[in-house]
Amino acid sequence: xxxxxxxxxxxxxxxxxxxxxxxxxxxxxxxxxxxxxxxxxxxxxxxxxxxxxxxxxxxxxxxxxxxxxxxxxxxxxxxxxxxxxxxxxxxxxxxxxxxxxxxxxxxxxxxxxxxxxxxxxxxxxxxxxxxxxxxxxxxxxxxxxxxxxxxxxxxxxxxxxxxxxxxxxxxxxxxxxxxxxxxxxxxxxxxxxxxxxxxxxxxxxxxxxxxxxxxxxxxxxxxxxxxxxxxxxxxxxxxxxxx
Length: 243
Description:
This protein is α/β, with parallel strands linked by helices. It has 9 helices and 7 strands. Helix 3 runs parallel beside helix 4. Helix 2 links the parallel strand 2 and strand 3 (53-58). A 7-stranded parallel beta sheet has the order 3-2-1-4-5-6-7, sandwiched between helices. The longest helix has 28 residues, at 102-129. The protein has helices at residues 13-24, 37-49, 64-77, 102-129, 142-145, 151-171, 189-192, 196-203, 214-225, and strands spanning 3-7, 27-33, 53-58, 83-86, 133-138, 176-183, 236-239. The chain has one domain (3-184, 214-237): Rossmann fold (3-Layer(aba) Sandwich), CATH 3.40.50.
């Protein structure tokens, strides 16, 4: 019987790399996307070409009804989820607190915090029935250092770190583990969308002289899902290249 994984925001970046890797490791994978159907379908096709099992399901993580529908759709296709990777998120754009608006805060927290909470809620209901499971949250080192004109994003990720610790304690007796990976600067579209001078300055701060790779983050996620990490829960693991 295949293990079942839901990866939110999996049409690109860390989510896409994780979907490809989990499919190679005997997971039936649900690739969740919000708007990028073409990219999500391409990931599904790549997995199927390698004899893997995958589907793509549209859902806006900022909408509770969409999150519930996502899990119900996976129930119908694969059965109950055994691994949830909460990867979907938005940084809300560069903005100092002096200019922050309620709309911007609502947008960031609805996706990054509320969506993650609701996905965890739906996952734990199902994992209890199958006597265990794994939840991996994707945070950011911005939660630790506050970001640069991204305090709204950093605060949302700090909330996820705290969720991880508290939630892990709640569900430990059900053989459900909850952990967080906290990437630093990773080579994704999100970072490349920044102004060139911002990217140039960012690279100067990286001890290894390069950004991390999405595959490097996905390998950490795979390990946390494995039996090799069976006593690790409530952990927040940085992947930063010593930054």
